[in-house]
Amino acid sequence: MKFLEVISSFSSLIAIVSAVPASLPITKRAALDDFIAGQTSIAANGVLANIGSMGARSYGASKGLTLASPSKSDPDYFYTWTRDSALVFKALVDRFIDTGDTNLQLEINNYISAQANLQTVAGPTGGLSDGLGLGEPKFLPNGSAFYGLWGRPQRDGPALRATAMVAYGRWLLDNNYKSAATDIVWPIIKNDLAYVTQYWNQTAFDLWEETLGSSFFTTAVQYRALVEGSGFASSIGKSCDDCDSQAPQVLCFLQTFWNGEYVVSNINGEGEIKRSGKDAASILASLHVYDSDAGCDDATFQPCSPRALSNHKAVVDSFRGFYAINNGIANGSAVAVGRYTEDIYFNGNPWYLTTLAAAEQLYYALHQVDSAGSITITSVSLPFWRSLYPSAAPGTYKSNTGTYSSLANAMRTYADGFISIVQKYTPSSGALAEQFDKSTGAPLSAAHLTWSYASFLTAVAARDYVIPASWNAGTPKVPSTCSASPAKGSYAAATNTAWPDFPCNTATSVIVTFNVLASTSPNQNTYVVGSIPELGGWDAGKGVKLGADRYTQDSPLWYGSVTLDAGTRFEFKYVKTDASGGIVWEKGQGEGGTANRVYVVPKGCEASVALKDWFTS
């Protein structure tokens, strides 16, 4: 996500698997399906690679903290954001619940422990005693405060973090770990809910960290956090009375962003850029308030609601023909989607995550109408439906009718089109940056953006009808009069991070990442060479070449990864080479400097490890 000069948000992912209903068949599109199959693994690994401290691209990040990107310059995203981390881990929690991957659970536990500590870190916005510090948007990779100029406070992070932890807390309860839910997870959630109840009616910087005012995205995720936070509290024998009193008022305020055609994403403030209000943040908000049991509720802007569909059309159409790569694409067909048309960050381009979000909303909408067994077209949603199906008319169409099938298939084709756009502009490596060029489609801005990878996973999960659990959105009644009387929150440090011994699946293979600080000249490269075939069998010409894209004078980092069988013992050294064929082996280890480095790949739950070495001259 871009922030005054830097970074990222995310979406929901996987929790309860629902078989694709027979009434809504999935049309196989071989080229797209093949891309999705390959890219899903790349995206999953891409997320994990950026999580400290064992991720392949996370050198410098503490355990459980997620880097927005390993990029350290142009732009510098080498920080951890509360919002972005919460969105990533909501995706990972849902994925863990769906797959049972215990390696993901280890990451989730580390994340929660790290957040317990992060809540206590005082920074420019304040500390924990009055909750103000919870509005601090980002921290250094080691978890300490960031004091540079920034758009602060940001009030969506605590709400999103509470949502991610509630999802995991429910799993703990369902699997007989109530004490962990009550004693470890709840105290963190309680602080975040207190922050929301106390500060929801105060202005803050928006999702993109540029506009100070009231944000539709922030308000929407705050409402969800209060509703499901109260429900979770009840499930563990606690209560959140302030959640119950404030949620209706937050919902009431949420309605004020709707102008009759689309969501005006930011109100009550002036930003650095004058905007129309048409903003992909509103589509992302629809994803994060999605509830499989809520139907097409307008008040909560559910993905299939008339308001959300009308807004989807307004936002997407604002980019139709706006970028050169969108020229010639017909109305009703997918286009590359950016943040908002007035965007000037990196000269304003499409983003992978916003284009994916456009698809994800439609996949969720398809699930909702299929669950309802009908599609209802209103005067508000009619322009959206007519852009896909010109003969669409107001009315309700049951799932056993030809009109329903035509409408549903048109929506699915449209949704797949956004994935195809991402496919077209994804490099052969599968690496997802933040943006792609509006004229050429080339990747731009921060490389390996964690949010981009997570957004791919959530969009594909939605396409496959792998649906997050309900948060009990229901069809709430909006108060006739909005009130702005926030609660007074109370806060306390969450000190218990003693996790129970969860069963795990022992990893048979492990990603081993080599990180070495090695000062080199411009014409030199660094390799890791060792006693096993994967490291060249002591042949320097066959060793593993390390990357230097994060190399700086202060931190001359070379890094790279190999996958090895658990229990493998090997010896190795680091080697510098130059263009003329010169080879410099590092000095040996131990007394006399003659011994090789020795490592044994651990046998355990972790599927990745990271070595941190210095080149010995």
Indicate the CATH class of the largest domain.
Mainly Alpha
DSSP strand tally = 19
Report the sheet with the most strands, covering strand number, pairing sense and barrel closure: 5 strands, antiparallel
Please tell me how large the radius of gyration is.
Answer: 25 Å
As for the CATH topology of the largest domain, it is Glycosyltransferase
- How far the N terminus sits from the C terminus, by CA atoms, comes to 41 Å
> How many structural domains are formed by the residues?
2
What do the pLDDT scores average to?
94
Signal peptide: 1-19
Organism: Polyplosphaeria fusca
Keywords: Carbohydrate metabolism, Glycoprotein, Glycosidase, Hydrolase, Polysaccharide degradation, Signal
Domain CBM20: 504-616
List the helices and strands and how they pair.
Layout: E1 16-17, H1 30-49, E2 80-81, H2 82-99, H3 102-118, E3 138-139, H4 156-174, H5 178-199, E4 204-205, E5 212-215, H6 216-235, H7 241-254, E6 266-267, H8 280-288, H9 306-318, H10 352-372, E7 374-377, H11 382-388, E8 395-398, H12 402-424, E9 435-436, E10 443-444, H13 450-463, E11 466-467, E12 509-517, E13 524-530, E14 544-545, E15 557-565, E16 569-578, E17 583-585, E18 597-600, E19 608-614
Parallel strand pairs: 12-19
Antiparallel strand pairs: 1-11, 2-3, 4-5, 5-6, 7-8, 9-10, 12-15, 13-14, 13-16, 16-17, 16-18
Structure in a nutshell:
This protein is α+β, with helices and mostly antiparallel strands and 617 residues long. The chain is built from 13 helices and 19 strands.
